[in-house]
């Protein structure tokens, strides 16, 4: 069924009162000013209409116990359906679907490294990451899923309502239907509150985008034992715990309607957009897919593909046995990063207004040269052999504990990455650590400005979106 | 010099009063609410402080006469520095710069044509299209250039202040400096009012973007005989004449600050963005560059490369002799379309509010699947052999003259396209021509909504931007 058709059919039937009494019934306000207030109400609701926050870890443990779920590392030779393609050495599935592991050569005009080669995941199909919303007692609640992913260090975390690749929902692996999917594909079932294509890890994926959606259900939503309704305030509380809210949930939360005040900022939105345009223009990034067996500096063994110096990441493979997944068992490759990441925004109050120091980052897999990342995004152990330290890393690592406004360990997408953990932080800085005259490639922006950008695709990278989710949910109030 | 550095250096020194008395001097309003009003003032100024509108055609004739400028068609063999590359047959310049003519294979999942092959221009470097603004007698004026381009049917048209490829301004063809360029590259010289990367013709260019900029000069601007200051109202008047305002000027004008009312619309901005996301998602477009000599259905002669049925366009070459260009003579390839294009928005007042019927178009050269185009964008003669007519074409061609709200002939970029003319129209429609329940791929949007989208890259294609420039300039008031 055509989504466009179902969308326009639902069009004029759902007017918004705030268009004012003068507007005919088929018109609505172009901007919904009420929505951010409703989400703010959910963010201040420390408890919801269902599970209490303190009960969530126990509930997650229960779900973990209810499902047999075992992940074992296996040699590549034991992969079922996956093999190294003759000629290229690319790691591919016999169906031609899911994803492939290929090589990438990146050439760029700026930065300390002007050319590098690496393995990369090529997954062109666009998945849906969707959170379903419904009001209980006048407060919007989010339907979160207890979802197993083989790469998560604790296997099970809270995910969006729907987390589906196109292969998932078109049944490429012949499994069960994706629960609640129709709320996101059939516009008559819900009202869209956010819907935007966002990039994923540009260092590990070649031009991967997922569709981030928030949809409000218009009717009763049938319950299911692996799902629970939580307020934004409850999710915020859980974001303070390590490895509870998964990456897919965090990126969707970053797209949640945020305060609608226009506010003041060190740089106007026009200046911010202009700076971003100049960053996209000054970086000339050529990213070229090459055969995996032609990536210099990487070696393929029986159980892993590794960098010759043991840095960055390895390509490994696992077998998975599970009870509540779309299929009951499978094998697959995963990327396993070496070392713990550090991902942080330095923050300052400028004229009393909280600002974040954003970084225009080049990642080889981005669709378009640069996206905005946090101030610091690196794996320190990858830089130990270099004389130059990543900018601002020491300001984060040596910060007095009183300056750390947020700190938690989160893992990246457990469907593709194995134990890919990073310490996420907000750290208060001063003029010595982070001057108002930011160096080239960095700019002070407000959370509201980032929130306005995240409505559009490919402005904020996935790490910046994880940190933004701490602000949109109210987990961090700067 | 790093643009980012000069930008942040200029940062806190230029506060905006509308941030209010409570804001410290280094903060400014995130959104500049005053700017659209200043541009609206310029749009209502039918005459400016300098040349009168009726004098502009005479002034253009004078500039045309003052410069010797002759364009002659030549066989490919007489191209200087250009040749067909061995092996690929690509048409390339010996410097490796400027652009190349290659082949493209496009495979898509929707529409009447699921795969096609064609020649395409590959020009990866990002140019600057910039209009300089300055107030005279309290009214913003635009500095327009009388610029020769070999492909324009009348050779000389009004262009932006600056229209420079990176080859231009880094002196790849060793010519004169680009006049006024520093206003756009050195942030201390002006205040940026708009700055965004926009696509160009996706049917003729492979992923071409130009940087569209509007900059307000902070100091005196030295005059030059090929440039004149005009109000937006004067430019609007000239947009009613055939082939006066060139494409580069039109796309920059489309990015001009527009009325800041949020307004009402048939679909909220969130719904519009969601529809756009669903259009990007449902189209799977694979565009693959291939050697020019492997493009089936196209034949290379001594003077042109043509489609076997004589449709679409030809690749030709010309020699140029000019006095006021960066260099005094050169040869180059051009794309020469067959037939006159028709490019039109159907319009309707919905609940009293003007709406346009936008089309989510696939063009093979787009960076990302689809962009929003006008309701109709085609060359009718290319469709004469087909049974299916392009949707809404007949509603445009058969419209009663009383319904034509705007009509003018404009040409596309004269530096790459030869006599590429299209009739641009706004045509009032009714429920019979264009129902409120738009078919899949089409959506009713307001001019304000398009104006909000055009601040971000790759939402509106260049044809939609030409029509939007008629609205931002006030040439058309729906």
Automatic annotation (TrEMBL), chains A, B:
Gene3D superfamilies: EvaA sugar 2,3-dehydratase subunit. Residues 54-255, 270-471 form the dTDP-4-dehydro-6-deoxy-alpha-D-glucopyranose 2,3-dehydratase domain. This is NDP-hexose 2,3-dehydratase family protein. It comes from Streptomyces rhizosphaericus.
């Amino acid at each position: 069924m055509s989504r466009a058709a179902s969308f326009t059919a639902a069009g004029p039937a759902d007017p918004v009162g705030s268009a004012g009494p003068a507007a005919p019934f088929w018109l609505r306000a172009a901007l919904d000013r009420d929505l951010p207030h409703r989400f703010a109400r959910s963010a201040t609701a420390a408890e919801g209409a269902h599970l209490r926050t303190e009960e969530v870890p126990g509930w997650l443990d229960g779900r973990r116990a209810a499902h047999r779920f075992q992940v074992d590392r296996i040699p590549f030779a034991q992969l079922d359906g996956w093999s190294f393609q003759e000629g290229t050495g690319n790691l591919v599935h016999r169906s031609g679907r899911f994803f492939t592991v290929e090589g990438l050569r990146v050439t760029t005009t700026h930065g300390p490294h002007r050319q590098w080669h690496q393995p990369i995941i090529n997954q062109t199909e666009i998945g849906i990451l969707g959170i379903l919303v419904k009001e209980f007692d006048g407060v919007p609640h989010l339907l979160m899923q207890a979802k197993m992913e083989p790469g998560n260090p604790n296997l099970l975390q809270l995910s969006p309502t729907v987390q589906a690749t196109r292969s998932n929902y078109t049944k490429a692996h012949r499994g069960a239907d994706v629960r609640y999917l129709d709320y996101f594909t059939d516009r008559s079932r819900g009202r869209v509150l956010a819907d935007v294509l966002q990039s994923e890890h540009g260092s590990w994926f070649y031009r991967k985008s997922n569709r981030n959606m928030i949809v409000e259900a218009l009717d009763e939503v049938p319950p299911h034992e692996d799902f629970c309704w939580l307020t934004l305030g409850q999710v915020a509380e859980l974001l303070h715990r390590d490895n509870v809210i998964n990456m897919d949930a965090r990126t969707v939360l970053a797209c949640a309607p945020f305060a609608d005040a226009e506010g003041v900022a060190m740089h106007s939105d026009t200046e911010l957009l202009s700076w971003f345009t100049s960053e996209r223009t000054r970086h000339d990034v050529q990213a070229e897919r090459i055969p995996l067996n032609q990536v210099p500096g990487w070696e393929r063994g029986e159980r892993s593909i590794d960098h010759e110096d043991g840095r960055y990441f390895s390509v490994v493979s696992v077998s998975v046995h599970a009870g509540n997944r779309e299929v009951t068992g499978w094998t697959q490759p995963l990327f396993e990063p070496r070392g713990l990441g550090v991902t942080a925004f330095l923050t300052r109050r400028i004229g009393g207004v909280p600002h974040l120091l954003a970084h225009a980052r080049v990642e080889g897999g981005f669709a378009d040269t640069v996206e905005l990342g946090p101030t610091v995004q690196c794996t320190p152990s990858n830089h130990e052999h270099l004389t130059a330290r990543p900018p601002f890393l020491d300001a984060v690592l040596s910060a007095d504990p009183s300056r750390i406004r947020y700190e938690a360990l989160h893992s990246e997408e457990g469907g593709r990455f194995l134990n890919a953990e990073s310490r996420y932080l907000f750290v208060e800085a001063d003029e010595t650590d982070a001057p108002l005259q930011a160096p080239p490639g960095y700019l002070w922006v407000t959370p509201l400005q980032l929130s306005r950008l995240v409505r559009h695709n490919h402005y904020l990278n996935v790490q910046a979106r994880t940190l933004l989710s701490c602000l949109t949910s109210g987990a961090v109030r700067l």
